[in-house]
Design goal:
- Helix content is about 35%, strand content about 30%.
- Strand 4 (about 80-90), helix 4 and strand 5 (about 115-120) form a beta-alpha-beta unit.
- By secondary structure, it is of the alpha+beta class.
């Protein structure tokens, strides 16, 4: 498994990976219909394509040459000191194999000027909470609108010091 920068040809596969992962993770929390609606909006091809072109960002995939097993998207704030990890997902069948750690490491290395990495995590997502805690993140706050303005999805905010 290796980590590389995503390209436009990966977007259909990434979209499918996100739908699969979101349903496996969030159906029990939000219900199938709400997960369908969220993934249709947040993980549309247009939304994913816009991330590819976003300045001061990195869009990565974990690839074994046959399939994409994970993805991550992060962007630096204006001054580059704070890095926001917007997405890090690994296919359910590939979890607990070190892929998430590989993606997280590559994100960190892609932004050497960053001093803090921030991520929002759904409080009921115990697996993600454990992953980020084991990766050195500590709770720094909470938000009522995870992922998007007016999403209505509460989340915990975690931060990790870098450098």
């Amino acid at each position: 498994m290796f980590v590389r920068t995503a390209s436009e040809r990966d977007l259909e596969t990434i979209k499918a990976l996100l739908a699969e992962t979101w349903h496996a993770t969030y159906d029990a929390i939000y219900g199938v219909e709400r997960v369908d609606a969220i993934t249709a909006e947040w993980h549309s091809l247009a939304s994913l394509k816009a991330r590819l072109a976003r300045p001061s960002s990195e869009f990565l995939v974990a690839d074994d040459g046959k399939k994409i097993a994970g993805m991550a998207f992060a962007a630096a704030t204006g001054d580059g000191k704070v890095l926001v990890l917007h997405q890090l997902y690994v296919r359910p069948g590939n979890q607990r194999a070190g892929i998430g750690r590989m993606l997280l490491d590559e994100v960190e290395q892609s932004f050497p000027e960053a001093r803090t990495m921030r991520v929002e995590v759904e409080e009921a997502n115990a697996q993600a909470l454990a992953f980020y805690a084991a990766s050195g993140f500590i709770r720094a706050g909470e938000t009522a609108n995870c992922g998007a303005e007016q999403s209505g999805i509460p989340a915990l905010i975690f931060e990790k010091k870098l450098g």
